[in-house]
Write a structure and sequence with these properties.
The complex is a heterodimer of chains A (269) and B (410).
Chain A: H1 9-30, H2 41-45, H3 50-79, H4 83-94, H5 101-112, H6 117-124, H7 136-159, H8 164-172, H9 177-188, H10 190-206, H11 209-214, H12 222-231, H13 237-268
Helix pairs in contact in A: 1-13, 3-7, 3-10, 7-10, 8-9, 10-13, 12-13
Chain B: H1 2-23, E1 47-53, H2 67-75, E2 78-84, H3 87-95, E3 103-104, H4 108-116, H5 129-134, E4 152-164, E5 189-192, H6 195-205, H7 215-229, E6 232-236, H8 239-245, E7 251-255, H9 256-265, E8 269-272, E9 280-285, H10 294-304, H11 307-317, H12 324-329, H13 332-335, H14 344-347, H15 358-373, H16 382-409
Parallel strand pairs in B: 1-2, 1-3, 5-6
Antiparallel strand pairs in B: 4-7, 4-8, 4-9
Helix pairs in contact in B: 6-7, 7-15
Classes of the chains: A mainly alpha (269), B alpha/beta (410).
Chain lengths: 269, 410
């Protein structure tokens, strides 16, 4: 095992410059006013935007849950396939990610519109048109579509490590499908689940472009609110920093739920 | 050493010339006024950073003049041309020291704000003789730059209402800005996703100035905008091109210049100027504090005010020009276009945006975010759902802990 700590120094320098220092700046701005004096006013001002924060959390939680429900069975099936087929399907999952994020979201805009492809197709059968764009549902859809691969990949990675004989053993001992999933699969892939949840939840809660393009600008999320502080009229970076700090605290809180769960699960197994 | 440097510079210059010769269109040099020495920096190897709105210059596409390349060829100055999409992002970038620019082209109220904060250089108009010569008097002495110290007008225009003639009844057009509040077109109306523009329209609806003067006025305008929210399909900016072009929406307020472009793409669209009057905006060229090549920047501004260049620009982007020489050369149809060059009587009803004090700006921002997160039908389900989710999570955690504790006890 390599013990020499100096090998990590490039990363330490990197993270100090690009993580620690910016974080300190954010905290500094969050607790000062325009003249640099200490104040709690910024944090208190956030109170009036509670509904936006709540909406962001709810939408991100829903998107994460949908991603998990979709990705879990898919990852399992994927991990049991022949190696050649696995790599092909993984390719298919990764393929959309080669395209620009904005472009993918823009494409959904044209699909969901009132005169969009989906409504026109349904129109052929005399159904619709449905009002799909500019709704919270469209925002969730955008999140799920864009972040699903981040859920699949960690789940798949961890599930390939589960030996099929473990599952067979459970079945031999009389466990039904449901029990195999709850007692064997889920506990064994808990690490992947928590990683996946983190990787989907964090970008979902802080996104602003998805809500702008698919939410019609009226489903304001935290990300939009923060952007508004920096690119709005008043250029209030103190309030913007306070909001970013608040967002970080929320994310940390939510993450503590999942990681605590993971540890307990491991302890149980 | 110096010899080597010179040779390198020569090679570099040759490559630049060769490169620009490759990209330049077939016709050669631009006609410029006599008596201005455009070549005085030719050997200095200067790079000029120009920061302009996106698609806001004649760039050589479809056989038009490539203004930047022509300037480079004429002067030997290299231009690093980049674009921004809102006044606010330009401001944020300059304020945070994120860019060193020599020429910027903000709009009226932003010029005023930047001038107040000492972010602009005073221009030396002896280097910009074309300003005196060509820029129309109507565009001078504006409130954002009362003494004409900081800016040279580049383009101007009005905010109009764009509508789809197949979806909107001709009779409703007369209702002016009220059209944007008309429940008959609920779900087919687009609105500016930009607080300043949105509050201008609300101000006009309330029969006031487009510039709020008190916090109460901001709040009343916000109320008006909240009333509108139930009929608005989406708050957008450039997405308007797509949504109006594709017939996705019926009515949208936007800039006349872009309206002309949209109508070219979709002949069903038409424009109207509300009788109450509207916002007139002027985008002008300025030099930010700390510009490295101020005199070369002034040369660029002067070049932009050459008649042929101004004409090429205005023809390419379809906005209205403050350049009297270019205006005369425009074809008659454009010159008499009632939206691009409306008569003076209507222009008297129009206002530019003024610089607002900090207090009003932050009131407007928070009112604007509350407008956009406001929901008349009520999002009553949100809180309970969150509560339930949190409760379930907490309960699961609690049960787990209990199980674990019991196991440990064994």
């Amino acid at each position: 095992m390599i013990k020499n700590k100096s090998l990590a120094s490039p990363y330490i320098v990197w993270s100090v410059i690009f993580t620690a220092v910016p974080l300190a700046i954010v905290i500094y701005f969050a607790f000062t006013d325009k003249n640099g004096a200490f104040t709690l006013q910024n944090i208190m001002d956030i109170g009036q935007y509670t509904s936006v924060f709540v909406r962001s959390i709810v939408l991100a939680v829903i998107a994460t849950a949908i991603c998990l429900v979709l990705a879990f069975p898919l990852s399992f099936m994927l991990s049991r396939m022949r190696a050649s087929r696995q790599s092909m399907i993984l390719m298919l999952i990764m393929l959309p990610m080669w395209m620009n994020f904005l472009l993918r979201t823009y494409a959904w805009m044209t699909l969901l519109e009132r005169n969009g492809l989906i409504n026109r197709f349904l129109g052929l059968f005399g159904i619709g048109p449905f009002n799909m764009i500019n709704t919270s549902g469209a925002v969730v859809l955008g999140m799920v579509y864009n972040y699903l691969p981040y859920m699949i990949l960690p789940l798949y990675t961890i599930m390939t490590k589960i030996d099929s004989s473990v599952i067979e053993a459970a079945q031999d001992l009389g466990a039904g499908h449901f029990r195999v999933v709850t007692k064997v699969l889920i506990p064994l892939s808990m690490d992947g689940i928590t990683t996946g949840i983190t990787m989907v939840f964090v970008p979902s809660i802080s996104t602003f472009i998805i809500s702008r393009m698919l939410g019609g600008g009226s489903n304001l999320l935290i990300g939009d609110l923060i952007e508004l502080q920096f690119l709005g009229n008043s250029y209030n970076y103190n309030l913007g920093s306070a909001m970013s700090l608040m967002l970080m605290v929320i994310v940390l809180l939510c993450m503590s739920f999942t990681t605590a769960d993971g540890e307990e699960m491991e302890a149980m197994v | 050493m110096t010899d080597l440097k010179k040779r390198l510079a020569a090679v570099l210059a040759a490559t630049v010339v060769a490169a620009s010769a490759l990209t330049a269109p077939a016709f050669a040099e631009t006609e410029v006024d006599d008596g201005y020495d455009y070549t005085r920096f030719a050997d200095d190897n200067i790079t000029l950073n120009v920061y302009n709105w996106g698609e806001y210059i004649s760039d050589g596409s479809e056989g038009t003049m490539d203004v930047v390349a022509e300037f480079e060829e004429l002067t030997g100055i290299h231009v690093n041309y980049t674009t921004f999409d809102t006044n606010e992002s330009l401001y944020a970038k300059l304020k945070s020291g994120g860019g060193a620019y020599d020429v910027i082209i903000p709009s009226d109220y932003m010029i005023g704000k930047m001038a107040n904060e000492g972010m602009l250089e005073e221009l030396d108009f002896s280097n910009i003789p074309n300003y005196e010569k060509y820029i129309g008097d109507a565009y001078k002495n504006q409130s954002y730059d009362p003494e004409n110290k900081y800016s040279v007008p580049y383009m101007w225009g009005l905010v109009c209402i764009i509508y789809n003639t197949t979806m909107v009844d001709e009779g409703d057009i007369a209702s002016g800005w009220g059209l944007l509040w008309d429940e008959k077109y609920a779900g087919q109306i687009l609105m500016f996703n930009n607080s300043r523009d949105a509050f201008s329209i609300a101000g006009k609806m309330l029969g006031r100035s487009i510039n709020p003067s008190t916090v109460e006025e901001v709040e009343e305008s916000a109320e008006k905008l909240k009333q509108q929210k139930s009929v608005v399909q989406a708050y957008v900016m450039d997405e308007i091109f797509d949504k109006m072009g594709g017939g996705e929406a019926a009515i949208a307020p936007y800039y006349v210049g872009d309206g002309v472009t949209m109508i070219e793409d979709n002949p069903d669209l038409a424009m109207t100027l509300p009788a109450e009057g509207t916002n007139i905006y002027i985008d002008a060229m300025c030099i930010p504090k700390g510009a490295r090549h101020k005199e070369a920047a002034e040369m660029f501004i002067n070049f932009m005010c050459e008649t042929q260049v101004a004409l090429a620009n205005v023809e390419a982007i379809c906005y209205s020009t403050p350049h009297t020489g270019a205006l005369e050369l425009l074809d008659e149809e454009t010159r008499e276009n009632e939206f691009m060059y409306p008569e003076d009587g209507y222009l008297a009803l129009c206002e530019t945006m003024s610089v607002l004090p900090d207090e009003l700006n932050s009131a407007m921002d928070s009112a604007w975010s509350s407008v956009r997160s406001y929901d008349a039908t009520g999002n009553a389900w949100l809180m309970p759902v969150l509560l339930v989710v949190m409760l379930v999570l907490a309960a699961v955690g609690f049960v787990r802990k209990a199980i674990r504790r019991r196991k440990r006890d064994y």
